[in-house]
Amino acid sequence: MKDNSYYGQLNVFQTIAQEGSISAAARKLQIAVPSASQSLKLLEQKIGVPLFHRTTRNIQLTEAGRQLLAQTETAMMMLNQALEEIQHFNSEPTGTVRITLSRFAYQLILRSHLAEFHERYPQIQLEISLNDALVNLLEEGFDLGIRFGNRIEEGMVARKLLPAFKEGLYVTKAYIKQYGKPKTPKDLTTHRLIGYRFISSNRIEPLVLNIDGKDTALNIDTPLLCNDPEIIADAARQGIGIGRIFEPNMQLFEDKDDFIPILQKHWREYPPLYLYYLQHNQKSRKMQTVIEFLLEKTKK
C-alpha cells in the first residue's frame, strides 16, 4: 500500500538510499515493491526532479537526491524517535540500538554484561560492531559509539565511562628465560614485540613509550602481527614476545599473576574512554536505557 504523505514518501526515499535498492527498502519497510516504487515516483513528481539514477543493475542518488537526503535525514530521525517515544510511553523500552566500539572497549565494558542486559531489557536488540576506526555515527547509521577522548563533532554528546589509564608492557617467565628482562627502553633493541595492525587503516601500531616526559615511538622486532588484543595476550602467555595490554584489561585475566610487568615508569597513558551519541538521540527510551546501563557498569 503506497503512502501519499510527504512523511511516508520521504521514509521510503531514505530507506532506498540506505539499503541501495527499492526491493531491499520494501523488505525493510514490510511493504510491496510496487508500493515502494510508486511512493518514490510520487515524491519525484512533487519535487519535480529525479532523485535516483536507475539502471538494470543498480540505483544511485542524483545530486538532488544527495542534497535531499542530507537535509532531511536528521529531521526524519528525530521525528521517528519522537513517534517511537510516544508509542512506547507506558511500555518497556524496545527496539534496536546500534553500537560501534573497539575490540578493547568491547572486552572491557560490554563482554561480561551482555547476559544481564538482555535479561533486564529483553525487548531491546543490541547490534554490536567492532571497529578500531573513528566512526561517524550519523553517516554510518550508529546510535552509540565508545572511543578515547572527548573531542566530538557538533551535535554530539560525550559521557565519560572510564578515567585515563596506561598501556602496560608484559612478559612471562618463559620469555625472560629465553630473551632476558629489559631494564631500560634502550634494551628493547634486542627484544621481540607482538605487533598490532589496525584493520581499518592497515597501519601497524608502533611501540610508544614515555621517555623523558615525551611519547616516543620505537622500532622493535615483531615476530608476530595480529589485529586482536586476545591474540596479543595469548602470544605473550606463550613467551613469543612482549605484549601490550591495557591495565584495566589485565585486571580481568584469571592468570594475571603469570604476567610480569616491565618498564613501568615508561608506560604510555591513554585519555579517558567516552560514550558518545547524537544529542537528540538521548531522548529515546531505548537509548536512555542503554546509556544508563553502560554508565552504571563503568561507575567506580
TrEMBL record:
This is LysR family transcriptional regulator. Keywords: DNA-binding, Transcription, Transcription regulation. PANTHER family: HTH-TYPE TRANSCRIPTIONAL ACTIVATOR TTDR-RELATED (PTHR30537:SF5), HTH-TYPE TRANSCRIPTIONAL REGULATOR (PTHR30537). One of its GO terms (molecular function) is DNA-binding transcription factor activity. Belongs to the LysR transcriptional regulatory family. InterPro entries: LysR-type_TF_proteobact-type (IPR058163), LysR_HTH_N (IPR000847), LysR_subst-bd (IPR005119), WH-like_DNA-bd_sf (IPR036388), WH_DNA-bd_sf (IPR036390). Residues 9-62 form the HTH lysR-type domain.
